Amino acid sequence: MERIEFSINGVKRRRFRKAEPPFLFKNNFIWRNQNNEKSTCTVLAIVMAVVCFAGCSAPAAEGGNEAGGSAASGDTIKVGLLGPYTGDLAVYGLAVKNGATLYFDKVNAEGGINGKKIELISYDNKGDDAEAINAFNREVDEGITAFIGDVITSNTIAVAGEANAVNMPMITASATAEAVTVNPDDGSVYTNVFRTCFIDPFQGEKMAQYAKEKLGYTKAAVIVQTGNDYAAGLNEAFKAKCAELGMTVVAEEGYAKGDKDFNAQLTNIKAADPEFIFCPNYYEDDGMIVKQARALGLTVPFLGGDGWDGVVKYASAEELEGTFYCSAYAPGSTDAVKAFEEAYTAAYGTDTLNMFAANAYDAAMVMCAALAKAEETGEAPASDAYKQAVIDAIKTEGANVVGITSEAGYTFDANNNPIKDAVIMTITNGEAVYKETF
After folding, report:
1. Which of 126, 190, 223, 422 is 20 to 30 A from 44 in CA distance terms?
2. Measuring CA to CA, which residue among 16, 225, 54, 9 is closest to residue 134?
C-alpha cells in the first residue's frame, strides 16, 4: 500500500492505494452505493472521482461540513457505519451494522430526530486498515455528522486518528484496545471518540479474578495470537493480574495470524500441567484451538474475552463444555433484552445476534440521544459547531440511556470508556449461557 497525504480546507487527510499501475488507482475513488457495489462504467467512475475532488476543494457551504464534505440536507442527518461485512470477521461487522441499524430504523419510524431522518452511509472495510481509512474518508466527503465504528481493534485505531482530525463524533461498539480513545503518540485522549464496549485490560483482569476467586485456580497457561492488539491487550492485563493475585502462568505460547495447526503449542502447554488455559483471541481461532486441545487429551477449562462470542460454530458442544468468557450481554436476561432480541431476529435472523449487536444498539441509542441534544443548538448537521455539540452531549446524555448492555446508563471515565459491569458467560450443551455478573 502507498499512503497519499493531502489537505482539504487545511485539514490533513490520508488515503491509500496499491503501488500498482495508475489505472488501478482510480478504483480507490470509485463512488459506491450503500451495498458497496462498484460502478461498472470506468468513464463514469473517473468523472465522479474528479467531481468529488473538485467539490472537496471548493469552500464549504454555510452550515456545511468544514472538513470538506457536502452539507447534510435539511431533513436528514447522515451517520456513517463501517466494518468488515465480508470475510472471516464478518460476524462482528454485520452484528454491529445490524444492531445499530435496528435502532436507527426505530428512530426513523417514530419520526426521526427533531423531524430529521437518519440517513445511514455504510461501507465494507474487509477488515483492512487502509480500506478502513479510505472508507471513513469517503463517508466524511459524503457529509456524515456522526460515526458508529469501526469494529475490530486495528481498523478502529487506524480510523480514530482520522476522526479526531475532523472532530467527528465517534462511538465504537466493539474495539477494545486502550489506544482506540488515546493517541498512542502522546497519550492524549481523543475527545471525540467513545465506546460502549469494555477495554482489553478490564477483560483480562476480570478473567484472572474470576479464575482465582470463583473457580479457585492458581495455575494458568496462555495461548495468544502474536501481533494482534486485542489479544495482546487482554493477555498483558491477565498476566499482570495473575501476578497480583499470586497465580502462576506456567506456560505462554504464541501463534501467527493465519495459523491452523496449534499442536506444538498445545503439547507444550499440556506438559506444563495448568489448571486452565486463557485464550484471549477471536472466536474462529479459539474454536480450532479448543478442538485440537481436546484431541491431544487436554481437558482443562478454557477462559477468554468477548472475542469468544460466536465460538459455538467452530467447535462441538462436547469440546466447548465448561468454557467461560467475559461479555457485556446476557441473552434473555431482562424484558428489554428480550424485546431487542425479538426485533433483531425478525429483521436479521439469529446468525449475528450476539454481544456486538447489543453493544451497537446501545451505541446508536447514545448517539441518537446526543444528536437530539445537538438539535437544540439550531446548528446545521455536519457543521463543526453541530459535531462539537454532539460530542459534548455524548458525555451528558449517555447517563440517561438505559441500554441493552448497561441498565444503569452510559457514563464515561476520563478516557471515554464506559463504566459498567461484566457478564460471565459459560458454554453448556453447545449454547452460550449467562452465568453471572461479576
Report:
1. 126
2. 16
* H helices, E strands: number in the chain: 13, 14
pLDDT per residue as tens digits for the range 148-161: 999 999 999 999 99
Reduce the DSSP state of residue 77 to 3 states and report it: strand
Q: Residue 431 and residue 320: Cα distance in Å, rounded? A: 9
Paired residues of 225 in beta bridges: 255
Q: What is 227-238 written as a DSSP string?
A: T-HHHHHHHHHH
Residue with cell 487527510: 13
pTM: 0.72
Distance of CA 97 to the CA centre of its chain: 10
C-alpha cell at 262: 496449534
29 φ/ψ angles, rounded to the nearest 5 degrees: -120, 10
Instruction: Judge whether 303 and 424 are in contact, CB under 8 Å.
Output: no
Calculate ∠ Cα 49-52-58, nearest 5°: 145
Interval 54-64: pLDDT, tens: 333 332 332 33
Residue 210 DSSP class = I
Give the tens place of pLDDT for each residue, 27-36: 332 233 444 4
Q: What type of residue sits at position 68?
A: G
Q: Which amino acid is present at 23?
A: F
Residue type (1 letter), 236: E
Cell 471513513 locates to 136
The residues with which 123 forms a beta bridge, in sequence order, are 82
Rounded CA-CA distance 289/372 in Å is: 46
Q: Which three cell numbers stand for residue 116?
A: 430529521
Cα separation, 149 vs 127, in Å, equals 12
Residue 401, amino acid: V
Cα 159 from chain centroid? 11
Give DSSP secondary structure letters for 349-383. Answer: -STT-SHHHHHHHHHHHHHHHHHHHHHTTTPPTTS
Q: Under DSSP, is residue 99 helix (H, G, I), strand (E, B) or coil?
A: helix
Say if residues 267 and 292 touch (Cβ distance below 8 Å). Answer: no
What per-residue string of b and e applies to 297-323 under the rule 16 or more CB within 10 Å gives b? ebebbbbbbbbbbbbbebbeeebbeeb
Give the C-alpha separation, 103 to 364, whole Å: 6
Query: Could you give the CA distance from residue 121 to residue 146 in angstroms, rounded to a whole number?
Result: 10
Place of cell 478490564: 202
> For residues 48 and 35, what is the distance between their CA atoms, to the nearest angstrom?
18
Close Cβ partners of 84 (under 8 Å, ≥ 6 residues apart): 90, 92, 93, 124, 125, 126, 127, 151, 152, 155
